[in-house]
Amino acid sequence: MSANATPISPTANPTLDRALRVTLEYRAETVGSMGELEPLAIRLGLVQDTLKPRFRNPQVVIFAADHGMAVDGIGAMRGASSSLRVQQLLNGQLPVSVFARMQGLQLTVVDAGLADPMERHPKLLARKIAHGTRNARVGSAMSMEQANAAIRAGMEIADTLQGNLVACAGMGVGSHESAALVLSRLGDCPVRDLVVSGPDMRQDDLAHLLVILQGAQGRHRDTTDPIEVLAAFGGFEIAMMVGLMLVAASKRQLIVVDGMAACAALKVAAAIASPVTDYAVFCRSHSHRGLDEAMALFHASALLELGMQSADGTGATLAWPLIRSAAALLADVTDADDPTPSKPADWNDAPQR
């Protein structure tokens, strides 16, 4: 598969890292410590390979798909249908739509595999692989051909996006549970920890979920290859995000990971090309306890913790001003005698502080 040949460079650069830290120390002489903004600023400089990171045309891409496990009653726990939520998203009836517009973020919704047909809309990309996946409890959610087709579709979408920041999120009935199965297998962690929403979760709901998910795990107990795991348990939205993340990282773009489905996609992408995680920062749109476990697999935490219970993607729109501010700390806060060069290659010729 072409994804295996995607060139992704690690962001590790000791010389640039040292230069970024010295620059921030210089800033601190005039503006004081900026706390958690400083490690984020360093991360952005390393991602863009520059002492003065800047962003252009930031994108939010939300991938929507349905999952075959919904026939086992998962849908009853999630409320509105996937297609209705997408329609609300496109019509500006969800906070993420409004926040994206307010923050100057370009919002795109991808029909990766919704069960229902969707009417055309300027913000909707029709990339449907099938009308939902099959039930992972009775067979593979996707064929290998479908999984690879979805990854390629995500790569093609990434090639068409402008800008150097892309926030990824997934939505759809069964998406969280599908992602939990992928993460459980690839991260070697109990699926129970990934689906327990919190201390107030009804025990009968949890028991019902575990019967379904453990049945799916038993069906595919010998599956370990990352793409085969994706095909066995995953969804079209997860597979498309895998492709998008691989291409975005190869272009040294920042990837903002929002939600369980995006975490699962990053886990698969990292199994294909491990440096992809260098380009990821995390945010969250809901306080689901399982998401804590998912981010822990990457030794990461969310940029903001707001206690929301919203559709995936909302957290990314709210984290964007924080990311932009961290970049500005390096790129725009200057002194009259600040000699900091913009290119890391120039650092050896610059005055040392």
Overview of the molecule:
Helix 1 (14-31) packs antiparallel against helix 2 (37-48) and helix 6 (144-160) packs across helix 11. The chain is an alpha/beta fold and 353 residues long. A 6-stranded parallel beta sheet has the order 3-2-1-4-5-6, with helices on both faces. It has helices at residues 14-31, 37-48, 74-78, 82-90, 95-103, 144-160, 175-187, 191-195, 203-219, 226-233, 236-250, 260-272, 289-296, 314-331, and strands at 59-65, 106-113, 124-126, 165-171, 254-258, 280-283. It is globular and about 60 Å long.
Low-confidence stretches: 1-5, 348-353
Largest sheet: 6 strands, parallel
Strand portion, in percent? 5-15%
Radius of gyration (CA) equals 21 Å
Tell me the number of strands. 6
Mean pLDDT: 90
Number of helices: 14
- Structural class call reads alpha/beta
Q: In sequence order, what are the helices and strands, one letter per element?
A: HHEHHHEEHEHHHHHEHEHH
Termini separation comes to 48 Å
Order of strands across the widest beta sheet? 3-2-1-4-5-6
* Gross morphology: globular
Assign a percent range to the helix content. 40-55%
